[in-house]
Structure to design on (145 residues):
């Protein structure tokens, strides 16, 4: 391409290494003008949102709408001094084994289910709880560590 036909007054040249390429002549002047543009540019006013914080909270349903949930104690299992951490039911459903935070375990027979609303002439079935033999608790071992 003829140098007079080029859109810019730039003539490409070959250099042996990048460190030998000269600095752009207008670099300092263009940097300075860009800094002036940023320094003197008009600021944009940001609009603040005016939101009521209470409107961000979800509306919770009333407790009457959340029924059914337990309202009364249906059965009580005694025998633990600490908080009960685990409950296991035997495959036959005849025994409950519970373990508490104090290290005690207890085997109980679950109470019979409440009688169904049936005619008064049918008595609720009463079933005896068969005995469950458990080994004594093993002494606590310290964790290796």
């Amino acid at each position: 391409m003829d140098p007079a036909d080029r859109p810019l007054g730039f003539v490409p040249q070959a250099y042996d290494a990048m460190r030998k390429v000269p600095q752009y002549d207008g670099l300092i002047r263009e940097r300075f003008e860009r800094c002036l543009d940023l320094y003197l540019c008009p600021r944009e006013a940001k609009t603040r949102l005016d939101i009521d914080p209470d409107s961000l909270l979800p509306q919770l349903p009333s407790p009457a709408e959340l029924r059914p949930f337990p309202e009364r104690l249906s059965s009580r299992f005694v025998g633990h001094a600490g908080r009960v951490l685990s409950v296991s039911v035997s495959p036959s459903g005849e025994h409950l084994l519970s373990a508490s935070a104090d290290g005690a375990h207890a085997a109980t027979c679950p109470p019979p289910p409440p009688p169904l609303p049936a005619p008064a002439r049918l008595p609720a079935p009463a079933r005896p709880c068969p005995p469950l033999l458990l080994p004594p608790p093993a002494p606590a071992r310290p964790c290796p560590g």
Observations:
- The chain is about 10% helix and 10% strand.
- The mean pLDDT is 76.
